Amino acid sequence: MSLFTIGDLHLSLGTDKPMDIFPGWENYIELIKTAWNQTVKPEDTVVVAGDISWAMSLEECDADFSFIHRLNGKKILMKGNHDYWFSTKTKVEQYLEQKGFDSIRILFNNAYEYDGYSLCGTRGWINEQGEAVDKKVLNREAGRLRLSLEAGKKIGKPPIAFLHYPPIYGSNECWEILEVLLEYGVKQCYYGHIHGRSAQYAINGERKGIDFRLVSCDQVNFTPVQIL
After folding, report:
1. pTM surpassing 0.85?
2. Torsions phi, psi of 13, nearest 5?
3. DSSP 31-42
4. Which runs of E-coded beta strand occur in 103-221?
5. What residue segments make up the domains of the chain, in order of their start?
6. Where is the Calcineurin-like phosphoesterase domain (predicted)?
7. What is the pLDDT of residues 46-62, one digit of tens each?
8. Residue 193: which of 225, 219, 165 has the closest Cα?
9. Which CATH architecture has domain 3-226?
Protein backbone atom coordinates (compact mmCIF):
# COMPACT_ATOMS: atom_id res chain seq x y z
CA MET A 1 0.00 0.00 0.00
CA SER A 2 1.62 3.26 -1.20
CA LEU A 3 0.79 6.96 -1.43
CA PHE A 4 1.25 8.93 -4.65
CA THR A 5 0.50 12.41 -5.92
CA ILE A 6 0.12 14.17 -9.27
CA GLY A 7 -1.37 17.49 -10.35
CA ASP A 8 -3.09 19.11 -13.31
CA LEU A 9 -4.72 16.26 -15.18
CA HIS A 10 -6.68 18.86 -17.21
CA LEU A 11 -9.15 16.27 -18.45
CA SER A 12 -11.66 17.33 -21.10
CA LEU A 13 -13.40 14.10 -22.09
CA GLY A 14 -16.80 15.75 -21.70
CA THR A 15 -15.84 19.16 -23.05
CA ASP A 16 -13.95 20.48 -26.04
CA LYS A 17 -10.73 21.76 -24.48
CA PRO A 18 -8.00 19.18 -25.09
CA MET A 19 -4.47 19.83 -23.90
CA ASP A 20 -3.00 18.03 -26.92
CA ILE A 21 -2.59 21.40 -28.66
CA PHE A 22 0.25 22.28 -26.27
CA PRO A 23 3.81 20.99 -26.76
CA GLY A 24 4.53 17.98 -24.59
CA TRP A 25 0.86 17.13 -24.04
CA GLU A 26 0.29 15.03 -27.15
CA ASN A 27 -1.86 11.95 -26.43
CA TYR A 28 -1.86 12.90 -22.74
CA ILE A 29 -5.02 10.99 -21.83
CA GLU A 30 -3.46 7.68 -22.87
CA LEU A 31 -0.17 8.66 -21.26
CA ILE A 32 -1.91 9.31 -17.94
CA LYS A 33 -3.91 6.08 -18.11
CA THR A 34 -0.94 3.89 -18.98
CA ALA A 35 1.55 5.44 -16.55
CA TRP A 36 -0.98 5.57 -13.70
CA ASN A 37 -2.09 1.95 -13.99
CA GLN A 38 1.47 0.71 -14.39
CA THR A 39 2.58 2.63 -11.28
CA VAL A 40 -0.41 2.61 -8.93
CA LYS A 41 -1.86 -0.61 -7.52
CA PRO A 42 -5.54 -1.04 -6.59
CA GLU A 43 -4.72 -0.77 -2.87
CA ASP A 44 -2.75 2.50 -3.28
CA THR A 45 -3.91 6.12 -2.86
CA VAL A 46 -3.25 9.10 -5.14
CA VAL A 47 -3.71 12.76 -4.16
CA VAL A 48 -4.52 14.89 -7.23
CA ALA A 49 -3.35 18.47 -6.63
CA GLY A 50 -5.98 20.42 -8.55
CA ASP A 51 -6.87 21.38 -12.14
CA ILE A 52 -8.60 18.08 -12.62
CA SER A 53 -11.24 18.81 -15.25
CA TRP A 54 -12.04 21.59 -17.72
CA ALA A 55 -15.78 21.00 -17.11
CA MET A 56 -17.73 24.10 -16.13
CA SER A 57 -20.32 22.20 -14.08
CA LEU A 58 -20.73 18.86 -12.35
CA GLU A 59 -23.10 17.80 -15.13
CA GLU A 60 -20.18 18.03 -17.57
CA CYS A 61 -17.86 16.03 -15.31
CA ASP A 62 -19.27 12.55 -15.94
CA ALA A 63 -16.73 11.39 -18.54
CA ASP A 64 -13.75 12.86 -16.67
CA PHE A 65 -14.72 11.45 -13.29
CA SER A 66 -15.58 8.09 -14.83
CA PHE A 67 -12.05 8.05 -16.28
CA ILE A 68 -10.54 8.86 -12.88
CA HIS A 69 -12.74 6.34 -11.10
CA ARG A 70 -11.59 3.53 -13.41
CA LEU A 71 -7.91 4.24 -12.73
CA ASN A 72 -6.20 2.08 -10.12
CA GLY A 73 -6.33 3.03 -6.46
CA LYS A 74 -8.23 5.42 -4.26
CA LYS A 75 -8.14 9.07 -5.25
CA ILE A 76 -8.21 12.21 -3.13
CA LEU A 77 -9.02 15.27 -5.24
CA MET A 78 -8.51 18.93 -4.39
CA LYS A 79 -9.52 22.11 -6.16
CA GLY A 80 -7.33 23.99 -8.64
CA ASN A 81 -7.84 27.38 -10.26
CA HIS A 82 -9.49 25.84 -13.35
CA ASP A 83 -11.89 23.54 -11.50
CA TYR A 84 -15.00 25.63 -12.13
CA TRP A 85 -17.20 22.55 -11.63
CA PHE A 86 -16.38 22.66 -7.91
CA SER A 87 -19.26 24.44 -6.18
CA THR A 88 -19.31 23.15 -2.60
CA LYS A 89 -17.76 20.07 -1.01
CA THR A 90 -21.22 18.80 -0.08
CA LYS A 91 -22.55 19.07 -3.63
CA VAL A 92 -19.47 17.38 -5.09
CA GLU A 93 -19.69 14.53 -2.57
CA GLN A 94 -23.41 14.10 -3.33
CA TYR A 95 -22.57 13.96 -7.03
CA LEU A 96 -19.86 11.34 -6.47
CA GLU A 97 -22.25 9.21 -4.41
CA GLN A 98 -25.05 9.48 -6.97
CA LYS A 99 -22.72 8.45 -9.79
CA GLY A 100 -21.15 5.60 -7.83
CA PHE A 101 -17.64 7.06 -8.00
CA ASP A 102 -16.73 5.53 -4.65
CA SER A 103 -12.98 5.49 -5.29
CA ILE A 104 -12.91 9.32 -5.14
CA ARG A 105 -12.82 11.57 -2.06
CA ILE A 106 -12.48 15.34 -1.70
CA LEU A 107 -9.83 17.28 0.23
CA PHE A 108 -11.38 20.62 1.21
CA ASN A 109 -11.25 22.07 4.77
CA ASN A 110 -10.54 18.56 6.06
CA ALA A 111 -7.76 15.97 6.33
CA TYR A 112 -7.28 12.25 5.82
CA GLU A 113 -5.16 9.82 7.79
CA TYR A 114 -2.76 7.71 5.80
CA ASP A 115 -0.11 5.32 7.19
CA GLY A 116 1.06 7.46 10.09
CA TYR A 117 0.49 10.84 8.40
CA SER A 118 -2.32 13.33 7.98
CA LEU A 119 -2.96 14.48 4.41
CA CYS A 120 -3.89 18.15 4.33
CA GLY A 121 -4.24 20.86 1.71
CA THR A 122 -6.03 23.60 -0.18
CA ARG A 123 -5.86 25.38 -3.53
CA GLY A 124 -3.71 28.26 -2.27
CA TRP A 125 -3.36 31.47 -4.21
CA ILE A 126 -0.85 33.22 -6.41
CA ASN A 127 1.39 36.01 -5.18
CA GLU A 128 3.72 37.25 -7.93
CA GLN A 129 5.88 40.32 -8.07
CA GLY A 130 4.26 43.06 -10.09
CA GLU A 131 0.83 41.45 -9.89
CA ALA A 132 -2.06 42.79 -7.84
CA VAL A 133 -2.76 40.42 -4.96
CA ASP A 134 -6.36 39.65 -4.05
CA LYS A 135 -5.89 39.77 -0.29
CA LYS A 136 -9.42 38.58 0.39
CA VAL A 137 -8.94 35.39 -1.62
CA LEU A 138 -5.42 34.87 -0.30
CA ASN A 139 -6.51 35.19 3.33
CA ARG A 140 -9.43 32.84 2.67
CA GLU A 141 -7.09 30.20 1.24
CA ALA A 142 -4.72 30.59 4.18
CA GLY A 143 -7.73 30.03 6.43
CA ARG A 144 -8.73 26.91 4.52
CA LEU A 145 -5.21 25.55 4.83
CA ARG A 146 -5.35 26.24 8.56
CA LEU A 147 -8.67 24.36 8.83
CA SER A 148 -7.18 21.39 7.00
CA LEU A 149 -4.06 21.34 9.14
CA GLU A 150 -6.18 21.67 12.29
CA ALA A 151 -8.11 18.61 11.13
CA GLY A 152 -4.78 16.87 10.64
CA LYS A 153 -3.70 17.94 14.10
CA LYS A 154 -6.79 16.25 15.55
CA ILE A 155 -5.82 13.08 13.71
CA GLY A 156 -2.57 13.33 15.65
CA LYS A 157 -0.21 12.43 12.82
CA PRO A 158 2.54 14.53 11.12
CA PRO A 159 1.09 16.53 8.20
CA ILE A 160 1.88 16.27 4.50
CA ALA A 161 0.59 19.33 2.64
CA PHE A 162 -0.78 19.50 -0.90
CA LEU A 163 -1.40 22.79 -2.69
CA HIS A 164 -2.32 23.70 -6.21
CA TYR A 165 -0.46 27.02 -6.34
CA PRO A 166 3.21 27.01 -5.33
CA PRO A 167 3.84 28.84 -2.04
CA ILE A 168 7.31 29.73 -3.34
CA TYR A 169 8.02 30.41 -7.01
CA GLY A 170 11.41 31.74 -8.03
CA SER A 171 12.17 34.58 -5.64
CA ASN A 172 8.49 35.17 -4.81
CA GLU A 173 7.05 33.94 -1.55
CA CYS A 174 3.38 33.70 -0.64
CA TRP A 175 3.97 34.43 3.01
CA GLU A 176 0.35 34.07 4.08
CA ILE A 177 0.46 30.40 3.01
CA LEU A 178 4.03 29.79 4.13
CA GLU A 179 3.29 31.13 7.59
CA VAL A 180 0.58 28.51 8.09
CA LEU A 181 2.80 25.69 6.79
CA LEU A 182 5.55 26.69 9.20
CA GLU A 183 3.18 27.14 12.12
CA TYR A 184 1.97 23.55 11.80
CA GLY A 185 5.41 22.05 11.27
CA VAL A 186 4.86 20.87 7.69
CA LYS A 187 8.00 19.20 6.31
CA GLN A 188 6.68 18.01 2.92
CA CYS A 189 4.68 20.09 0.45
CA TYR A 190 3.58 19.04 -3.05
CA TYR A 191 2.10 21.47 -5.57
CA GLY A 192 1.09 21.85 -9.22
CA HIS A 193 -0.05 24.70 -11.49
CA ILE A 194 3.35 25.26 -13.16
CA HIS A 195 3.85 24.04 -16.73
CA GLY A 196 6.32 24.16 -19.60
CA ARG A 197 9.12 26.70 -19.50
CA SER A 198 7.71 28.24 -16.33
CA ALA A 199 8.98 25.19 -14.45
CA GLN A 200 12.52 26.55 -14.60
CA TYR A 201 11.59 28.82 -11.69
CA ALA A 202 9.82 26.12 -9.69
CA ILE A 203 11.23 25.07 -6.34
CA ASN A 204 12.16 21.41 -6.00
CA GLY A 205 14.00 21.06 -2.74
CA GLU A 206 14.19 22.41 0.77
CA ARG A 207 13.26 25.97 1.65
CA LYS A 208 12.59 27.13 5.20
CA GLY A 209 12.81 23.55 6.44
CA ILE A 210 10.12 22.31 4.02
CA ASP A 211 10.75 19.99 1.08
CA PHE A 212 8.80 21.39 -1.90
CA ARG A 213 8.07 19.31 -5.00
CA LEU A 214 6.37 20.25 -8.27
CA VAL A 215 4.08 17.44 -9.46
CA SER A 216 2.25 18.96 -12.46
CA CYS A 217 1.40 16.25 -14.98
CA ASP A 218 3.75 17.36 -17.73
CA GLN A 219 6.61 17.84 -15.25
CA VAL A 220 6.49 14.26 -13.94
CA ASN A 221 6.03 12.49 -17.29
CA PHE A 222 2.30 12.02 -16.60
CA THR A 223 3.23 9.53 -13.88
CA PRO A 224 2.06 9.72 -10.22
CA VAL A 225 4.96 10.45 -7.86
CA GLN A 226 5.40 8.09 -4.93
CA ILE A 227 5.52 9.75 -1.52
CA LEU A 228 5.20 6.81 0.89
Report:
1. yes
2. -70, -20
3. HHHHHHHHH--T
4. 104-106, 112-114, 117-122, 159-163, 168-169, 172-173, 188-191, 205-207, 210-214
5. 3-226
6. 5-196
7. 999 999 999 999 999 99
8. 165
9. 4-Layer Sandwich (3.60)
